[in-house]
Amino acid sequence: MDKPGLRLCGWLILSAHLPQEWTNRLDDFQKIMFLKCIRPDKVTNAMQDFVSHNLGQKFIEPQTADLHLVFRDSSATTPLIFVLSVGTDPAADLYKFAEEMKFAKRLNTISLGQGQGPRAEAMMRAAMEKGQWVFFQNCHLSPSWMPTLERLVEQVDPDHVHKDFRLWLTSMPSPQFPVMILQNGSKMTVEPPRGIKANLLRSYVTLNDDFLTSCTGKVDEFKHLLLSLCLFHAVLLERRKFGPLGFNIPYEFTDGDLRICMSQLRMFLMEYTEIAYKVLKYTAGEINYGGRVTDDWDRRCVMNVLDDFYAPKVLDSNYCYDESQIYHQLPPTSEHPAYLAYVRSLPINDTPEIFGLHDNANITFAQNETYRTLNDLLELQPKTAAAGENRDVVIEKLAKDVLSRVPKPIPLAPVMEKYPVLYEQSMNTVLTQEIIRYNKLLNVIHTSLQELLKAMKGLVVLSQALEEMSKSLFNNSVPVMWSKAAYPSLKPLASWVTDLIQRVEFVQTWVDNGIPPIFWISGFFFPQAFLTGTLQNYARKFVVSIDTVSFGFQVMKQAVKDITHAPTDGCYIRGLYVEGARWDQAAHVLGESRPKELFTEMPVIWLQPEQNRQVPTSGIYMCPVYKTLTRAGTLSTTGHSTNFVFTIEVPSSKPQKYWIKRGVALICALNY
Predict the structure, then answer these.
(1) Which of 456, 487, 514 is at the close of a domain?
(2) Cys-Cys link to 518, which of 8, 98, 135, 572 (CB 3.0-4.6 A)?
């Protein structure tokens, strides 16, 4: 293949010529499959071209909901339903439409929830008689009242109801929402704006010159900080698309959060002589936006991003928010049309630079989007045949292969005899606990595979659980039955099995040869127990309280093969990967990622227990360690995600804020 074909240079394979005869031998759909093998991050773009070419451009462009058109086709017996999506709230659009239709004073609104059912029913009956509009928000929050709403809609008599009556509803997709109402109603959905340009335009379209000049005495400062606030809102919304690099959890920030911050900004500027940046940051970052944030690391990220937007430097009319100088302040004399013109002049596609992210973040985002789409397609595929073979033959072959490769459970009694519970060596207890956990998983795998093979021969009944398991095996995904008994992992089945074999080998080598000189931290079922055991050994050795002992960190310059002995105190660990940056071996600090290099392996790290240790204030980055790339998990009693392991101080020549916005973290296991 020639170099342009190999590199693709970011172009789609559909528009670039494949070498030699392959251009004519493959149709457009087959070219997408070929592209998936080489550049999965470009598959979504290729799909868009394919749909546009075969169905039309309108099928890949977001369609705007025109309430005038919807209302024109509605009637008193036809509910109008907004299907909500993350980050959208059609309430403001409906209020504006009601004013245009002279119905603002005849619009009755209620947000459904516990105890609101009787009020909503009375409101709807009164509106049907008087010819008013009724707006029931968030129907998904009141599932118990949905049968009553269905009955009320069924009872609407077209001969007796006022012709001006309209029922407006909003709901997230919910199985409790009445199907009858969906079938008889007019359904609309408002997609959240995509990109900083669209979000800024949405924010400024609702403003006017009266509002921009309403902050008496500090009009110029208000205009500058208002633009800064709107840009901050857009950055937070768009960071979500980068997945864990943006935020561990995709929060539902809304236009309501922005409107509250706007009001507070105006109020605090008018009440304080000096600009109270500390108050502004606290109300916006900790309360309004931070009130939605449940992860401590995400809160740290929000506050560091906000530092760039609520600061004295943004009052400079020449200030730029990015190095490319695309996003910048406007002169204080600018009026509302000038702000709209500026926003419309911005590029449609955002560079990761404005978010503080590396260019590789776009590749991560595009890959994740591709995998989500392909997973949805996989769920829709027929279950009859695969590559000319019967589906059952494929599953049986795979089940026998996994059964032959996955090791049997490790006998526990000999291990407990060889490594008894000792006061001075907590690692014996850690080893025993690890074996118990892995044995439970190995038993589930062997038992379920044997049952499945028997069921496929007709010797036992094929249960629902076994049917789901066979479906997962066929799709190269880990069966739910196994993942419930397993450690967190995002790997597909083939890689997962290989990883499991390596983990069991790590434990077996420990059993056979004693405590290893370097611990493979990714190989632990529950790494937190290992870390606690290391601290416990140190505390018992020096007879100090374990509460006063914490880890110091030293990134080793030696390779894994050169380290043959464990340290006197603490332990060596390996198996961590850096996401969002790389380890610069020459400078011995965190460095910028290389283009298209999403993950790099971290060298061996020495965990050094110390008593009453003082954390360095500079020269390090407090880097969180996670088990998988999703980073999200359920919140534990410690306030951290169950996916979170611990924090490592990684040497850095840049301030922490730089890597925080980059979303840099250490990962125990990748997704391939």
Answers:
(1) 514
(2) 572
pLDDT digits (tens, 9 = 90+) for 458-511: 888 888 888 899 988 988 889 999 999 999 998 999 999 999 999 999 999 999
Separation of alpha carbons 170 and 188, rounded Å = 9
pLDDT value, residue 19: 73
Asked if residue 368 belongs to a domain, the reply is no
Query: What's the confidence (pLDDT) of residue 59?
Result: 76
Angle 200-203-205 from CA coordinates, rounded to 5°: 105
Q: How many residues does the chain have?
A: 672
Q: Quick check: 602 and 582 in contact, CB under 8 A?
A: no
The dihedral built from the CA positions of residue 358, 361, 362 and 364, taken in this order, carries a sign that is positive
The strand ranges marked E within 513-604 are 518-520, 549-555, 571-574, 577-579, 582-584, 589-591, 599-601
Question: Which residue from 204, 233, 193, 229 is spatially nearest to 334, judged by alpha carbons?
Answer: 204
Nearest Cα to Cα of residue 93 among 68, 110, 73, 113: 68
Are 533 and 482 in a shared domain?
no
* The 3-state secondary structure of 611-622, one letter per residue: ECCCCCCCCEEE
Which two structure tokens, joined as six digits, stand for 304?
A: 């560091």
pLDDT at 454 over 70: yes
The answer to whether 245 touches 631, Cβ cutoff 8 Å, is no
Q: In terms of Cα–Cα distance, which of 495, 505, 494 is closest to 434?
A: 505
The domain spanning residue 316 has which CATH number? 1.10.8.720
Helix, strand and coil in the chain, % to nearest 5: 50, 10, 35
pLDDT at 385 over 50: no
d(C-alpha 428, C-alpha 519), whole Å: 14
Q: What is the DSSP string of 166-214?
A: EEEEEE-S-TTS-HHHHHHSEEEE-PPP-SHHHHHHHHHHT--HHHHT-
Range of the domain at 554: 516-672
Structure tokens given for 39: 């550049």
Please state the pTM of the whole predicted model. Answer: 0.81
CA dihedral 283, 285, 287, 288 (to 10 degrees): 90
Are 354 and 326 a contacting pair, CB within 8 Å? yes
**Residue 500 belongs to domain with CATH number:** 1.20.1270
